[in-house]
Design brief:
The structure holds 2 protein chains of 2 kinds.
Chain A: H1 2-29, H2 44-53, H3 60-84, H4 106-141, H5 146-160, H6 163-177, H7 194-231, H8 234-241, H9 246-274, H10 278-283, H11 289-298, H12 302-330
Helix pairs in contact in A: 1-12, 4-5, 4-7, 4-9, 5-7, 6-7, 7-9, 8-9, 9-12, 11-12
Chain B: E1 13-26, E2 29-42, E3 46-50, H1 57-64, E4 73-82, E5 85-86, H2 92-98, E6 103-106, H3 120-131, H4 136-149, H5 155-158, H6 168-180, E7 186-190, H7 198-215, E8 218-223, H8 226-232, E9 235-240, E10 243-249, H9 250-255, H10 260-267, H11 279-282, H12 313-317, E11 323-326, E12 329-331, E13 335-336, E14 341-342
Helix pairs in contact in B: 3-4, 3-6, 4-6, 6-7
The chains are: A mainly alpha, B alpha/beta.
Chain lengths: ~325, ~350
């Protein structure tokens, strides 16, 4: 297993290098100019100076290699220093990936935004799973029952109605009509006591609900079909013929087998949490990573876009590996040697 | 006939099944899979149930224990007296107590009948814990004994393995261990050797003979292999089109089959004692001409009539009930194959 993981991690290196090159080249080819939004009164020589200060006068290859060095060497070193408190080499002279718009290091911006995204999007992912699995199991067990039919209808609605619609609907209901919940997520809110925890839960409720509904809609259907794939297999009949309780037949025998593809899908979906939910974050004014990315794209903040998208790529490669490892752990027939 | 275990045919009746009728509601219409099957099983007896695919052998047994998925299956009627109670009328929990503890089940395909993600030990220990209230450790210890009983070497370490680490024959042994775990009075073996290759098949048959001698349970052995039944069974029941067409002691059935279908079946067995000049070997194997019955309607006539050389007007009009043709020998046929003429018995007189 260890050998398999090591080999997969080594394979990930060329994959990620290729992705980074494509990302960098693509954004470089895109017609964007960091001085494009400056007033027209600023002369061309000043603009050239600005470009020079950003390192844009350098050839493509040099910029790419420098970015690689910054991303793979300098920034990890900074993170290590921050955590351990040690100083490794010349930390102040180290070149960092900086946002063109704010001039602050991109990593700092991400660290600033990450908690909001994890709270809202991460929690909605967990809630979505917790809703979807029991619904999927029960829908499959009572296939074509009224519960299953309603479940099918609700989940069809769930993934065909976009979150910007359900989100606005929720705001209209809970904030405008009932006036129970705030429609804007306050990023600066800090949880210190029970009262502030309550406020936090109140402001989390709607975005989490909207996203969890969307996630659960897909996952419950997937769980249902995974259960159905197993429910009529011979080993289930064997378990019943042994006189095992129906509950155990379902939750031990069938569920254990059905969870194999479902867990894989859940693991593959984790990177999307970090990607943030651009639309939902916009609606509820959550200052998360999705918001950061959309602002960066609008402002042609190339280093920020590059870094964010590349982090997503790393996470996707990583969680593909996690999914494969989990698959091997859940299914004894699969051995990675 | 080959040597058999203790043939205690005169023992007490442990399982008395009557009039099992099961239909399947499919997209193409209703399939009448079992149309009134009954049999009695005595203590220590081995009843061979023979018939081609789709003759309702397995469905009868599965109906009896409520193991068919409903829908599409619908058990229309049936009584199965086991231990003084009709198990086809039992509630969910009472029926669960019978399954595994009273009646053990061995299924056909050992490759798919064990759960691939649970260890063999867990799966054998499960009925022990469910029925006998064993603790985890006790059940595990007993499971090791059971694996030893069915002839699996180093059972303690084998318990921790998964089914895919077992060979086909080993898996069927484990399946038998599982079915015997709670020492049921009746073991239903649904084509337990069909999916195995011939040498493994012989080993499993030897094992069953040994277990019968040691444990003395009654066995229902479903198969389409007439050779296996000849060497194993005390009594044989031949099924066709969801009906019992002949029922007799094994010698009587093989030496003097009374139903044209049974005769035809026995005629299809390849002979190994050919004439020696190679003529026999070059001949095509005989087969029963015609198609198996379609079962889309409940039988109103003899289901074998279209393929039967002796069929006459009555066969197309009335479905023959099981008629007594000799002591302990019944056949569902209007024609007396030995006399070569229609049976001169009471009209509609059941055996």
């Amino acid at each position: 297993m260890i050998r398999y993981i090591t080999r997969r991690l080594l394979f990930a290196v060329p994959t990620l290098l290729a992705i980074s090159f494509v990302l960098f080249a693509l954004l470089d080819l895109a017609p964007s100019d960091p001085t494009g939004q400056l007033p027209l009164t600023i002369g061309p020589e000043v603009r050239a100076q600005i470009r020079e200060s950003l390192g844009l006068d350098q050839p493509f290859a040099v910029r790419y290699v420098k970015w690689l060095e910054q991303f793979f060497v300098n920034e990890p070193l900074n993170v290590v220093e921050k955590i351990t408190g040690l100083e490794i080499g010349d930390s102040s002279g180290r070149l960092r990936v900086r946002s063109w718009a704010t001039r602050s290091p991109v990593v700092d911006l991400i660290v600033e935004r990450l908690p909001q995204t994890l709270w809202v999007v991460g929690l909605s992912y967990v809630v979505g799973i917790l809703i979807a699995l029991p619904i999927g199991v029960f829908s499959a067990y009572k296939q074509y029952s009224w519960f299953d039919q309603i479940g099918a209808f609700v989940s069809m609605v769930g993934f065909s109605v976009p979150t910007f619609f359900t989100g606005l609907l929720a705001i209209l209901l809970f904030s405008v009509t009932l006036n129970w919940l705030p429609s804007i997520y306050d990023t600066t809110h800090e949880v210190t006591d029970l009262g502030s925890l309550w406020t936090q839960l109140k402001q989390l409720f709607m975005p989490v609900l909207v996203l969890a509904f969307y996630n659960a809609a897909q996952l419950s259907r997937f769980m249902r079909s995974a259960m159905l794939d197993n429910l009529n297999l011979d080993y289930v009949r064997t378990a019943r013929a042994k006189g095992v309780r129906e509950r155990a037949v379902l939750l031990v025998h069938v569920l254990r087998n059905s969870m194999i593809p479902v867990v894989t899908m859940i693991a593959l979906g984790v990177p999307t949490i970090f990607g943030g939910a651009i639309i939902t974050e916009q609606i509820f004014r959550v200052n998360g990573l999705g918001q950061l990315l959309i602002v960066a794209i609008q402002g042609a903040d190339i280093p920020l876009v590059q870094t964010l998208t590349f982090i997503f790529a790393v996470l996707i490669v990583l969680f593909n590996l996690v999914a494969d490892v989990l698959y091997g752990l859940l299914d004894p027939r699969i051995r990675y040697d | 006939m080959a040597a058999r275990g203790a043939p205690a045919v005169d023992g007490r009746c442990v399982l008395d099944v009557e009039d099992v009728r099961t239909r399947f509601h499919t997209a193409d219409g209703v399939v009448h899979a079992v149309n009134g099957v009954g049999f009695r099983l005595h203590e220590g007896e081995l009843l061979g149930v023979v018939g081609e695919s789709g003759s309702g052998k397995s469905v009868t047994m599965l109906s009896m224990l409520g193991l068919l998925p409903t829908p599409p299956a619908e058990v229309v009627s049936g009584r199965a007296r086991f231990d003084g109670v009709d198990i086809m009328r039992l509630g969910r929990d009472a029926l669960r107590q019978v399954r595994g503890a009273g009646v053990g089940f061995v299924f056909q395909d050992p490759m798919t009948s064990l759960n691939p993600v649970l260890t063999v030990g867990y799966q054998i220990a499960e009925p022990l814990r469910a029925h006998l209230g064993f603790s985890k450790a006790e059940a595990w210890r007993r499971a090791a004994e059971l694996l030893d009983l069915v002839g699996i070497p180093s059972p303690a370490s084998r318990l921790r393995e998964y089914p895919h680490q077992f060979s086909g024959g080993m898996r069927q042994r484990a399946m038998i261990a599982l079915a015997l775990a709670c020492e049921p009075k009746v073991l239903v073996a649904d084509e337990p050797t069909t999916a195995l290759d011939v040498t493994v098949q012989a080993q499993i048959l030897d094992l069953v003979r040994k277990l019968r001698r040691e444990l003395g349970m009654a066995i229902v052995w479903i198969t389409h292999d007439l050779g296996v039944v000849a060497g194993l069974a005390d009594r044989v029941m031949v099924m066709y089109g969801g009906l019992v067409v002949e029922r007799a002691d094994v010698e009587a059935l093989y030496l003097r089959p009374r139903h044209p279908y049974t005769r035809a079946l026995l005629g299809t067995l390849p002979s190994v004692t050919g004439s020696g000049n190679g003529q026999e070997a070059r001949k095509r194997l005989p087969s029963i001409s015609g198609q198996p019955p379609s079962l889309t309607t409940a039988p109103a006539a003899c289901p074998f009539a279209p393929r039967c050389g002796h069929a006459f007007a009555r066969c197309w009009r009335e479905n023959p009930p099981l008629l007594k043709v000799a002591g302990g020998h019944e056949a569902a046929c209007w024609f007396d194959v030995e006399a070569g003429a229609p049976r001169r018995q009471r009209e509609n007189g059941p055996a």
